[in-house]
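Hi Q.,

Before the meeting this afternoon, I wanted you to have the iron/sulfur cluster prediction in hand. No need to reply - just skim if you have a minute. The sequence and ligand are here:
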Amino acid sequence: MDEQARVREIYQRLQRESANWEPTSLSYFKGEPFKALIAAMLSAQTREEQTTAAANRLFALADNPFDMLKLIDEQIYEAIQNVQYAEPKVGYVRDIAERVAANGGKVPETVEELVEYRGVGWKVAVLTLAVGYGRTEDITVDVHVARIGKRLGLVNPATKQPPKVNEELKRILPRDMWPHWNALMVQFGRNVCLPTYPRCPKCPLNDLCPKIGVDRVSTR
Ligand code: SF4
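Predicted structure with the ligand bound:
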């Protein structure tokens, strides 16, 4: 099987399997750029269910930048206190709301503009564009995308920076896969290709995967 056929087979098998897995929660903010931006920023270093709960508490108080600016810091903190680095993130929420309000309520549509915002790095910017605007010129790279890409031999094991992982993946994955790759890897990484003990014996990709860097596997 050549590499393009292997990639296509990986994708098709995972798409079939994904019907059995929980969807990723940021998809709840699909088509809502401001909410997607705030939720993506809150998600840094934080588990998805905590991010969603915090974002929903915050959006129950204010779901647009103008109303969010009327909140006091204590209200924001109380809503998001269960995310990692909640204190600096209160400042990021305020900064994002101020900048978006100053832009007439419109979230920028480029990575270059978004990374100028406090608390917004490349990954948050790409995720915001994908969820909020359906823009998929890049693949959102998180720990699941990077880890699984390396195990599958799609990404160089030495590559560390998310933008570089994105470039390597875009060279090998056909364009139609880019919009779905992050969510697929997040679901797969939570259910099968786990960080420390991947479930290789039960993995639908077992025969397609070189298991690069995998030392120990789960027998469950
Ligand atoms: S075979 Fe193992 S390392 Fe490869 S994708 Fe499946 S779970 Fe991950």
